[in-house]
């Protein structure tokens, strides 16, 4: 894609701090460095988000993530955890519309990073949970 910053990075038109590259995937340091080692893993094929992946592309991208995660862990033995995030569409905080996966090393609870999952279990009856389940299952093909 012509104006995509990640396509330009992949094509070496914009410099990056490359961590890993093969024929399908490019991984580089996120310029924000939310924490030390914050890495982005991107498919070389331009797709906007997870909704455009086919099985082959998903395999290409997601099979590389453990390799890169282990490299982060070895590079930074003081790392105590790792968040793996993939934001899809603007409401879900996607800001660059070339699919990418964030690997965010965690060092302490004082890192400038947080995720909060609200617990709304009491708002759904077992029947409503089953309806939600059935509705999704109908669409999995």
Automatic annotation (TrEMBL):
<dbReference type="InterPro" id="IPR001310">
    <property type="entry name" value="Histidine_triad_HIT"/>
</dbReference>
<feature type="active site" description="Tele-AMP-histidine intermediate">
    <location>
        <position position="100"/>
    </location>
</feature>
<dbReference type="InterPro" id="IPR011146">
    <property type="entry name" value="HIT-like"/>
</dbReference>
<dbReference type="GO" id="GO:0009117">
    <property type="term" value="P:nucleotide metabolic process"/>
</dbReference>
<feature type="domain" description="HIT">
    <location>
        <begin position="5"/>
        <end position="115"/>
    </location>
</feature>
<protein>
    <submittedName>
        <fullName>Histidine triad protein</fullName>
    </submittedName>
</protein>
<dbReference type="Pfam" id="PF01230">
    <property type="entry name" value="HIT"/>
</dbReference>
<feature type="short sequence motif" description="Histidine triad motif">
    <location>
        <begin position="98"/>
        <end position="102"/>
    </location>
</feature>
<dbReference type="InterPro" id="IPR036265">
    <property type="entry name" value="HIT-like_sf"/>
</dbReference>
<dbReference type="InterPro" id="IPR019808">
    <property type="entry name" value="Histidine_triad_CS"/>
</dbReference>
<dbReference type="GO" id="GO:0003824">
    <property type="term" value="F:catalytic activity"/>
</dbReference>
<dbReference type="InterPro" id="IPR039384">
    <property type="entry name" value="HINT"/>
</dbReference>
């Amino acid at each position: 894609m012509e104006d995509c910053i990640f396509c330009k990075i992949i094509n070496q038109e914009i410099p990056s701090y490359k961590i890993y590259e093969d024929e399908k995937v490019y991984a580089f340091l996120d310029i924000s460095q939310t924490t030390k080692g914050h890495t982005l893993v991107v498919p070389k094929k331009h797709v906007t988000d997870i909704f455009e992946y086919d099985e082959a592309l998903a395999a290409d991208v997601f099979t590389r993530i453990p390799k890169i995660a282990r490299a982060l862990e070895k590079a930074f033995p003081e790392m105590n955890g790792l968040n793996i995030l993939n934001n899809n569409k603007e409401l879900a905080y996607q800001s660059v519309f070339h699919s990418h996966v964030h690997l965010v090393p965690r060092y302490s609870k004082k890192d400038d990073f947080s995720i909060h999952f609200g617990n709304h279990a009491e708002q759904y009856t077992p029947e409503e949970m089953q309806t939600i389940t059935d509705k999704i299952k109908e669409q999995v093909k």
